[in-house]
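As the next step, I selected for study one protein, both as residues and as discrete backbone shape codes, as given directly below:
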Amino acid sequence: MPPQYAPSLRSRLAPLLLFLQTGFIIIFAFYTEIERNGNADDFSKCYPEFQDVNVIVILGFGFLGTFLVRHGFSGSGFNLLVAAMATQWALILNGVESLYYRGRLRIDLRSLIVAEMCTASALISIGAVLGKTNPVHLILIGLLEVSGFILNKWLLQLILNTQPLISIMMLHIFGSLFGLMLTGTLYRKGSERRFEKEKFDTKMGLFSMLGTVFLWMFWPSFNSVLVDDQTPGRKLGAVCSTYLALAVSAVTAAAVSVLSNPKGKLNLIHLQSCILAGGVAVGVSMSAVRHPWEAMIIGFAAAIISSIGFQYLKIHMLLAFQCHDTCAILSSHALPGVLGWLAHLVLQIKDSDDHTVAIRFAVFHICSLLITIALSVTLGILTGLLIRLKFWRPPQYKNCFDDQAFWEFSHLAVRK
């Protein structure tokens, strides 16, 4: 049965995409240039890292959103569409400082990597509203969320003098809180009884698990790509710490999944939500992790917190706060992110010999979290209020989580 708002893709999506893409082309034509001063060694060193981050953003997050039985096309296809648009926008916003001082936006592999990491924060947010929005909504959410995250990054670096690595790794906390406020604002009456088509099966679960595997494999690159390689061993330490945290969180998540299941069996969706918790937590605390055992403890604690959060908090968030979190980003990103922030604080204070320096760091570190929370919550609510406007034609309740509302299926076409 064709959805009521099928024509909205022609009347709204196409003009929006063409308008935005034309604007981006004009900006890139007049105000950007490729940085050509780097040598061949820099390129050969950075390009594999760029590829790894690209795999995470496109393949990892793309396949991860295909677990819904009738939303696989949209989960992967719209992820690519949002990533392509948001990365261009992030390149422009991140280059504003260069534009002000040099008159041109300088583009190199590092700027592409940073832009894709900013885009990852938007893809995390979209996970909360997956299946309940149309592609026009998703494009707007992606652009607004990236703008908010880059503003948060600037505030942390300008006001608190936060390191770029730390400010960017707040993407997990910012993106998840933004998404939770967004889905709370867009709450649909009746969601507590589960949407009619919000289902998953073994076939789509396998595709989704493929996305988890991609994320698990390439997450060490995601955490280490911005680590300063001038200090010997720091990048290697980041890779090893991330891998160990991921390994521990995978094992722990499997154990908790079995223990929490009444029949003593593994739950695939449970594992997918919690298996990456160690990588998220250790990424936020990366600059303070010095020893492998520290990363392993962080991964162990993150998996337990994420597993418990998935088991109990998702339904309570829905009933108590009317917050329908499709991809459980609260347990997979928000809780491990906050744990990583706390671990960073504890480890930094533990390694500090000067009490004055430790107190000063604690104050600045707490302020960084408060700024991130305040900005993400505020912008998430404002974006939700904008998206709620009927002008954007939200999908009807019966058309949520249904690819047929947006994609053509030739085998279902009516023959005349």
